[in-house]
Amino acid sequence: VLSKLRYGGTESRPTGEVEQDLLTSDLRSLFGTNLAGLTPVPGGTLGVGFKANLNGQARFFKTHALPSGRLTLKREAEFLKVTALAQTDPQLVHRVQGSSERTWLHTRLLSPCASPSPPSVRALIAEYEAQLRKHPELAGVVPASDSIHELLARATPALDFLAGANLLSPLVTDTARAALDRLQGISADLSLQLCHGDLGPANIMSDGGSLVALDWEDAFWGIAGYDYLYWLTFFQNRKWLSKAALGHTPLEPSQEIALMALILLLKSWMSVRNGSYLCNTLTIEQRLLEVFNLD
């Protein structure tokens, strides 16, 4: 979520037809007649994507939409090599032409995963966390400033903004503030570890036999349990919100609820900033109450 907090809507990105044509021309010049069926795919905050067949194999191609996306693209490639090399076959191509340069990451094109269950997501997380522990060199890929402490620092201003916009009642505001205070109280004792950082439904794919976590551009220094709790906060996963979903991380249930509330506050603040909250079927307060009612 860090890239969305930092860059969402703050830098220009190639979304128009002219810019898209330039990117498709760049790909065709790189791979020539070996490339077929090139089709744009909606991109993320820092990336622009395409799918195509390369030498007869379905591949996904991604480049940086923003200048700040070049480093995170390289970061993503490093994480894929460690966590899903066989399933994704990540390849980086760096192109310099005159005064311009561009980096492309291409991987095997995987299939969307239909609503994985909490146990299967926890198993996926446990699997890639085990791989990450075997590769301490990745610690140098993620800056120390990219951490859960930045999320904690941004959460209270987000809460104040939502309350000031009359999107939260005084009761829910007080409950959310108490949740943030709970997290601040343990923040000095948090044991940081590398986390995916944006493990939403769109970033969990299947290679036909197992789940694969993609889009590691938001990898950051979180805590054990963060990725799972982040996944639970997505609207599509509301059906899994019950007390049975808690107690599967090193955190106490009340701390798990507090962390989910923090994530929802930051997501809600962004949705108000970009106006997407106006299309929501549930209010921000209703989403928060669903989490608080787990206590």
Automatic annotation (TrEMBL):
Aminoglycoside phosphotransferase domain location: 66-236
Record-linked SUPFAM superfamilies: Protein kinase-like (PK-like)
Protein name, as recorded: O antigen biosynthesis protein
Originating species: Bordetella avium (strain 197N)
